[in-house]
Design a protein that fits this description.
With 461 residues, this protein is α+β, with helices and mostly antiparallel strands. It folds into 3 domains: 175 residues, EvaA sugar 2,3-dehydratase subunit (Nucleoside Triphosphate Pyrophosphohydrolase); 84 residues, no CATH class; 151 residues, Nucleoside Triphosphate Pyrophosphohydrolase, CATH 3.90.79. A hairpin with a 7-residue loop joins β7 and β8. The radius of gyration is 22 Å and the shape is globular.
Amino acid sequence: MSTKVNRSDGFLASSITLSTAETPDPDSFLEKRSASASYGVAEIPLDALPDWRIDDRLSHASGRFFAVEGLSIHTDFGPTPQWCQPIIVQPEIGILGIIVKRINGVHHFLMQAKMEPGNSELVQYAATVQATPSNYQRVHGGRSTPYLEYFREHAGRRIVFDQLLSEHASWYLHKRNRNMIVEIPENEDIAVADDFAWLTLGQLRHQLERGNRVNMNARTVLSGISYDAEDDADSYGDIRDAFRLQVVESHRAGRSNADVSAAMTWLIDQKAKFSLDIRRISLRDMDKWVRGTDSIRHCEDRYFRIVGLSVAAPSREVDTWSQPMLEPTSSNVVALICQRRSGVLQFLVQAMIQPGLTDRLELAATVQLTPGSYRGPEDLPPLAECLDAPESWIRLEAVQSEDGGRFLRADTTHVVVNVPDGHTVNAPDNYRWMTLGLLNRLIRSGYYVNVEARSLIACLL
């Protein structure tokens, strides 16, 4: 149903608007764009990848795009003090940008139906622009990136969100992208290309609830949205679900500078408590990893493997290409426990060391794990039992694809568990309760919230 919204409303109004005359049906639009082209994805041996070479590292002949190297890790965080692994090295800072515009007073987001070869559902909603410098400088010799100028020329436009944020730090080394939301004036005309559509935040929220419909790069950008004072309080009357109302109230709580300062001090304490030493090494020198002609894999076929992929995608800037991909051996799970505390919904997050983080440690979800990586229940991380919570406590359970441009069939189950008031939750010292408002302030401050937690937060919009 269409919701009439006062023009003074902000993003909260967009989040409760499920359809407008200007927006297509999100399901049918995605299906039509998916059917408009034929796609081909086939695994090939690493040694058969054109223009890629493997010796001490796996890299492209141009020296651009990305490489796969070996990494040696020593840390006193977690149960494993030392290990080796392959890791993706991509020093380029890409642009992940969404154009937003008020249409009849309601914020609409210009989303792209984009094919990514690693996605379980190949075509998903993506940001308006999702491109590395190698892409938009057209090193691949392909077509130009639509709408790129909106994120490189800002005059006369409002920057809603602009921050460098980390990527998957178990699989990338020091990877970061520029996450942006740029608002254009309501009277500015913009041509909408075939693979693009204006969607409200409410429509995107429903796509997120379904799972595998909004890609990872769009989710990390959407995590920068907040419901703050610009939102008209009258919009609250259209929120019928009690939990969603608590989510909105959590967005507006704990946002003060004093709250942020206290959280940052606690995070610095956590960084000082744990050690992390990483060293880039040759692929040949990785203990327990096998470097073959077809793939790079763990000797026990655990964790993940590096494989080659041949791709045909007529809707992309380049019609055909080949590249390495990281393929997990099992699906991941991320879960947030939340509970009303002191009258407001708060979320339990942990300070987590990950080898690829720029500053060693960031906030992660309550539980972040790959079940296939554990030998038994005794190896599971703290609070993993929340995954067996009663069904009545579960507020979200949806499978989402990770970065389908680098990861093959990397699906993560996103779970939000709402623990009843008064129920005791025992957590280690590196865990802390925070409101969504405080987490949003930290996201907007840089390297404080990891990509897995940001993805969950986006699903709560």
